[in-house]
């Protein structure tokens, strides 16, 4: 009786353990539910059974600075299997507030499972512990982003420059960076200066020697007076920082860390232009300018044309200037001007010239004066308004009809011009025609009819030739096997190829492609096998040692690449090597 009770107890224990193991768990785990805006959040999506088609949530209020990283744990303890698969992400909050990590989904045994949403509270920045072995603390001390502004109290429409510099201590390395927040220049006219060919320089920051790189130079022209804000530039940087530990050769060990740096918001106090002495025709020009009105010719005949050019040269807000209109007598026909700009932007602001070119056509003989016009601007050197005026010029029309209303004409007589008829004036009217008769035609007499009739007979030899070539190709077993292997490699690596240049996404897709290939080729679940077991199975299938070695090295690269700097060239080499290896395995495996 006691023995039967023990048997029942053991049976119930095994049944409960099997039911417990069969229950699918898919949940979200976070490193903390409350963090400062300058801290990082780790999010793990963990499952106890392998699945496919994992879809993460939209981290709209966070910046993904790391991941997805995939890890698998598979163990047997006292005959009981324990399996865990995890997708990990590292997030940086974009702003303060309470946010939700939405549901992630995955397919396990044909069913879709979802996680439970998790709420995260983001507070103001918190103090980072001053731990000399903490890579985040070391990065915060060794990397600084600075915005240098040429002038903080400019006049309205006066040029100022903002130069963004990234300072890095000599013993710290920068792998890459990406912009989180780009500066917005509300109420400014702005233009970025070309930064090609920039080199790392050496300078001083807070009295210490740093290396620095100029990231951006921008010229700004304030468009309103008062206090104006320049939004900050923020970067997420991946760095290699030294630790207090050393290797067996005495060299410092380096650790990778992520650092979010910001240049901070800057405030500019813009002074309005003085009202005292402001000309009535002042249009907002600020700087140092010269003004000129020129004519391409001063003597010509009626119906000929000349160009009148109104031009401003100098240094200032040239692209924002409205040029004065030219004033000419009504007897001159004036066309709309052609606007030209020859302006370059440097750290000193806009330099060059702008002009309006008018085409002028006189209709009558006579002398026509061009009145003087003026241009006014605010001179930053003297902080006063200046007015420039053009010289008065005379356009002398030497030949043409006289205008009796023109007081400048030499005579007041009206001279009527004779009408000259052109002998070809009515040449377009056809008085004779050339008609030809049209003979009736029939379709069966055309080339199209005979071509359509003979084409099927001519196509028969080509069909026989194509069929023969197809039979020869079908008989080429080795060649077909090679072509099928190449197509298979491209099929599995298609997603990895789309992610070339994106390290994390590329190697996740590469690893998934290799696992899926083995699953299809060997008909196994790769999560159940170790690397040594995979090598044994490939060797049993007849795959040579060199190919197995290449396959193993690619798998190792997928694991190591997430934690080491990788270039686009290395990713392309790994992709080519993977395609070649899959093709070789498919050709060699029995």
UniProtKB/TrEMBL annotation:
Keywords: Membrane, Signal, Transmembrane, Transmembrane helix. Residues 1-22 form the signal peptide. The chain crosses the membrane at residues 448-466. It comes from the Bacteria. It holds the Pfam family BatD. The keyword Transcription regulation does not apply. PANTHER family: BATD, PROTEIN BATD-RELATED. This is Protein BatD. It comes from Yeosuana aromativorans. The gene is batD.
């Amino acid at each position: 009786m006691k023995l039967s009770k023990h048997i029942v107890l053991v049976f119930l224990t095994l049944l409960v353990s099997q039911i417990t193991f069969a229950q699918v768990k898919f949940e979200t785990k976070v490193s903390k539910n409350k963090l400062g805006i300058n801290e990082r959040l780790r999010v793990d999506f963990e499952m106890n059974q392998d699945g496919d088609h994992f879809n993460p949530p939209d981290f709209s209020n966070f910046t993904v600075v790391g991941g997805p990283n995939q890890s698998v744990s598979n163990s047997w303890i006292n005959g009981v299997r324990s399996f865990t698969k995890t997708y990990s992400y590292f997030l940086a909050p974009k702003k303060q507030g309470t946010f939700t990590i939405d549901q992630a989904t995955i397919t396990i045994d044909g069913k879709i499972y979802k996680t439970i949403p998790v709420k995260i509270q983001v507070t103001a920045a918190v103090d980072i512990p001053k731990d000399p072995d903490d890579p985040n603390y070391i990065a915060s001390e060794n990397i600084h982003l600075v915005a240098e502004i040429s002038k903080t109290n400019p006049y309205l429409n006066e040029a100022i420059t903002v130069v963004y510099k990234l300072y890095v201590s000599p013993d710290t390395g920068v792998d890459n960076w990406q912009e989180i927040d780009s500066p917005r220049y509300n109420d400014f006219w702005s233009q970025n200066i070309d930064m090609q060919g920039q080199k790392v320089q050496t300078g001083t920051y807070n009295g210490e020697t740093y290396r620095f790189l100029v990231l951006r130079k921008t010229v700004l022209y304030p468009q309103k007076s008062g206090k104006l804000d320049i939004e900050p530039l923020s970067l997420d940087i991946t760095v290699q920082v030294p630790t207090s530990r050393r290797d067996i050769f005495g060299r410092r060990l380096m650790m990778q860390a992520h650092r979010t740096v910001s240049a901070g918001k800057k405030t500019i106090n813009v002074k309005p232009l003085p009202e005292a002495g402001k000309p009535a025709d002042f249009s907002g020009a600020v700087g140092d300018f010269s003004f000129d009105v020129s004519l391409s010719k001063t003597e010509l005949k009626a119906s000929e044309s000349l160009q009148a050019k109104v031009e401003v040269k100098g240094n200032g807000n040239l692209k924002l200037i409205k040029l004065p209109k030219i004033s000419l007598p009504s007897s001159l026909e004036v066309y709309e001007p052609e606007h030209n700009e020859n302006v370059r932007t440097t750290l000193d602001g806009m330099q060059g010239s702008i002009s309006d070119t008018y085409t002028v056509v006189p209709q009558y003989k006579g002398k026509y004066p061009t009145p003087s016009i003026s241009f006014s601007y605010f001179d930053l050197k003297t902080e006063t308004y200046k007015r420039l005026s053009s010289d008065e010029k005379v356009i002398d029309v030497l030949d043409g009809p006289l205008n009796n209303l023109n007081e400048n004409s030499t005579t007041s007589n009206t001279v009527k011009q004779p009408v000259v008829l052109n002998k070809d004036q009515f040449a377009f009217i056809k008085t004779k025609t050339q008609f030809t008769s049209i003979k009736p035609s029939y379709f069966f007499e055309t080339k199209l009819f005979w071509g359509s009739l003979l084409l099927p007979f001519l196509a028969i030899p080509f069909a026989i030739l194509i069929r023969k070539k197809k039979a020869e190709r079908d008989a080429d077993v080795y060649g077909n096997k090679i072509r099928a292997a190449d197509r298979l490699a491209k099929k599995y690596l298609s997603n990895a190829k789309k992610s070339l240049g994106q390290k994390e996404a590329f190697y996740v897709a590469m690893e998934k492609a290799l696992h899926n290939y083995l699953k299809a080729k060997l008909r196994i679940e790769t999560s159940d096998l170790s690397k040594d077991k995979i090598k044994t199975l490939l060797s049993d299938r007849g795959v040579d040692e060199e190919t197995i070695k290449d396959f193993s090295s690619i798998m190792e690269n997928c694991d190591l690449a997430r934690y080491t700097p990788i270039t686009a060239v290395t990713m392309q080499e790994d992709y080519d090597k993977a395609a070649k290896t899959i093709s070789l395995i498919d050709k060699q495996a029995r």
